[in-house]
Amino acid sequence: MNMKLSSTLLGAITALSMISSANAAENWRGWNIHVDGYPNTVAMDKFAELLTEKTGGEINLQMFHGGTLGSQPDAIEQVRAGALEVANFNLGPIGPIAAEANVVSLPFIFKDVPHMFRVLDGDAGQAISDGMAAKGLIPLAWYDAGARSFYNGTKAINSPADVTGLKVRVMNNDLYSGMIAELGGNPSPMAFSEVYQALKTGVVDGAENNWPSYESTGHFEVAGFYSLSQHLIIPECICVNADSFNALSADMQTAVREAATESATLQRALWADRETASREKVVAAGVTLNEIDNKLPFQEAMAPVYENYLAANPDLRPLVEMIQATE
Ligand code: GTR
Fold first, then answer.
1. Mean pLDDT, to the nearest integer, of 171-177?
2. pLDDT over threshold 90, residue 9
3. Which of 248-274 are b and which e, b meaning 16 or more Cβ less than 10 Å from the residue's Cβ?
4. I want to staple 264 with a disulfide (CB 3.0 to 4.6 A). Which of 12, 141, 198, 252 is the partner?
């Protein structure tokens, strides 16, 4: 082959490979509900950065923060349908779609956050992941969302009776509505973005969330009594559309998982700091922090939530028992 021909050939091959790698590059879009500076927002941005780095630019993720692409239940459907590829979701609103994932929404199922992560790292976590994947959402890594407690604008909550008659906002999930009803309250499922206004105008009396969300949303400004019931410890995921993930080569899948794992390590560290900072901030702003000495009455009052759930989903009893038996 003469020099001229071979250099022409080489040029053609180079051009072709450039075209095919340009075709291979994927542009993903990601959803996140939280504001700038929130641990999850920072960690999702890190995930995007790591994705580009670890896939050699084959996957580029553009993040949309602050719930700008829709409410969480909407975004869950969008990721399942492939209209969005990635998101940071709380498992609460995923429960109604993936039955296995709903076990994490049973009140007091986890002893504490480290227990939750031990469960997620074991067989129960695998069963939850498989259940989600079967519904089109693959969890790549788990984020910390601390524990959720009650807050309202008028009084400290010390016992279930204190919730009686209160209208309490919950996330979209019948388990949470049942939980409030068992305490004698009126549950009001509502999108996260609407809660501030609802608290302010008295559409609801109270809500429940972790320290960072109570603070970042400004809910503490309009509902100044925070009572440490810690009745729900719900994990969050970086979730990816199953078809998008499954279509990747094994190497790319590994790169994506590594990026997610590193993002989660960062999120958990940022979370620990933010929990303290948020608590300190709201207390300094005048919030009444109420420790609940005895949480057993709450557990007992919420026990029918388990019974009803297991009666409706008898096949999930082994999973619930596996979680309860995890040290
Ligand atoms: C936050 C969680 C959000 C959302 C929100 C809510 O703690 O991070 O994903 O679920 O609670 O209460 O709607």
1. 97
2. no
3. beeebbebbbbbbbbbbebbbebbeeb
4. 141
| Ligand 1 center to 214 CA (angstroms) | 10
Collapse the DSSP code of 117 into the 3-class scheme (helix H, G, I; strand E, B; otherwise coil) and give the result: helix
The CA 8 to ligand 1 mean position distance, Å, reads 58
User: Residue 18: its pLDDT value, please?
Assistant: 46
Among 169, 192, 208, 236, which residue has the most ligand 1 atoms within 8 Å of its CB, making it the best to mutate? 192
Region 26-144+235-277: CATH code: 3.40.190.170
Domain layout of the chain by residue ranges: 26-144+235-277, 148-233+287-325
Question: Residue 314: is its pLDDT beyond 70?
Answer: yes
Q: Name which residue sits closest to atom 8 of ligand 1, judged by CA.
A: 90
- Please give the Cα distance from 232 to 16 (Å, whole number): 54
User: Which class is domain 148-233+287-325?
Assistant: alpha beta
pLDDT band at 47 (very low <50, low <70, confident <90, very high): very high
Q: Which atom of ligand 1 is nearest to the CA of 92?
A: 10
Kindly give the distance from the C-alpha atom of residue 320 to the centroid of ligand 1, in angstroms, as a whole number: 23
Q: What are phi and psi of 29, to 5 degrees?
A: -120, 140
Residues at CB less than 6 angstroms from ligand 1: 33, 72, 90, 92, 145, 171, 192, 209-210, 213, 236
Q: Measuring from atom 1 of ligand 1, which residue has the nearest CA?
A: 213
pLDDT at 66 over 60: yes
pLDDT for residue 22: 46
Cα 93 to ligand 1 centroid, rounded to whole Å: 9
- Of 275, 186, 172, nearest in space to 228 by CA: 275
Is 26-144+235-277's fold the same as 148-233+287-325's? yes
Q: Is the pLDDT of residue 17 over 70?
A: no
Pair of tokens at residue 281:
């901030």
Compute the distance from residue 7 Cα to the ligand 1 centre, in Å.
Answer: 58
